[in-house]
């Protein structure tokens, strides 16, 4: 992985322990600067995987990185889902929720995506830097109210949400972007089934959407058995 001397490739490290930090912020701002310098004759190739949210932190001023981190931690501690966390992250970010694609316009953008989210919703994976957000400010306020955080918001967060709510241009679109899922739980399961059948096994995909601890897979197999479709023995389940 060591680069040759005078390589045109730049490597930025950050987000230790999958948490956004100052190193990741510097990297995100460098990526934004590169994207903003592109023209209609350029192609921006983006590689996206799980963990991208922590690797691409660029809060909308006056929100600080620390304030955004604090809000995310409070939401997670109160049981917010990954979808809810990413909805808030996108609303407070310059690059998430299609912000990176918008910065690159009018260049064409191609995103190659490894999904770590069940169902592969491209707007959720890494908080969708090349996918226009479908959520409104009201969605954010509803989430914050649900977890009892709306009254405790920093003034900076209230400012950014109010500014977005009054934007006369409304949400931007990403018509110059092609998003492609290259890898996901469903694709991995399909290939595992294909390889098992090639070896002569009777392979059954129990589910592509099992989440939680290992006992959930066992319960799924029990339900499969109870519905009159006995599983071959031995059987196994693959989870995210």
Describe this structure in words.
Belongs to the glycerate kinase type-2 family. It catalyses: (R)-glycerate + ATP = (2R)-3-phosphoglycerate + ADP + H(+). Helices cover 40% and strands 8% of the residues. It has nine helices and three strands. Helix 3 runs antiparallel to helix 4 and helix 4 crosses helix 6. The two termini are 28 Å apart. Strands 1-2-3 form a three-stranded parallel beta sheet. The chain is mostly helical. The protein is globular. The longest helix has 15 residues.
Short description:
By secondary structure, the protein is mainly α. It contains 9 helices and 3 strands.
Gyration radius (Cα, Å) is: 21 Å
Give the ordered list of helices and strands: HEHHHHEHHEHH
Runs with pLDDT <50, length 5+?
A: none
Q: Averaging pLDDT over every residue, what do you get?
A: 86
* Shape call: globular
The largest β sheet comes out as: 3 strands, parallel
What is the β-strand count? 3
Sheet with the most strands: spatial strand order:
1-2-3
How many H/I helical runs? 9
How far is it from the N-terminal to the C-terminal residue, by CA? 28 Å
- Content of β-strand: 5-15%
Which percent range fits the helix content? 25-40%
Derived structural class: mainly alpha
């Amino acid at each position: 992985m060591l680069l040759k001397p005078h390589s045109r490739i730049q490597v930025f490290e950050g987000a230790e322990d999958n948490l956004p930090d100052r190193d990741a912020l510097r990297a995100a701002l460098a990526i934004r600067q590169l994207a903003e310098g592109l023209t209609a004759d350029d192609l921006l190739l983006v590689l996206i995987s799980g963990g991208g949210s922590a690797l691409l932190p660029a809060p909308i001023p006056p929100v600080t990185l620390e304030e955004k981190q604090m809000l995310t931690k409070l939401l997670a501690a109160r049981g917010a889902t990954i979808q809810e966390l990413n909805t808030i992250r996108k609303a407070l970010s310059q690059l998430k929720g299609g912000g990176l694609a918008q910065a690159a316009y009018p260049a064409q953008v191609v995103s190659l995506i490894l999904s770590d989210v069940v169902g592969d919703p491209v707007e959720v994976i890494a908080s969708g830097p090349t996918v226009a957000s479908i959520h409104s400010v009201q969605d954010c306020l509803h989430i914050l109210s649900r977890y009892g955080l709306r009254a405790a918001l920093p003034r900076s967060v209230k400012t950014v949400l109010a500014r977005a709510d009054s934007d006369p241009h409304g949400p931007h679109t990403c018509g110059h972007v092609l998003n492609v899922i290259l890898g996901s739980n469903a694709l991995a399961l399909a290939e595992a089934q294909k390889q098992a059948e090639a070896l002569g096994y009777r392979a059954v995909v129990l589910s592509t959407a099992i989440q939680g601890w290992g006992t959930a897979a066992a319960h799924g197999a029990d339900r499969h058995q109870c519905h009159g479709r006995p599983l071959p023995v031995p059987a196994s389940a693959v989870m995210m």
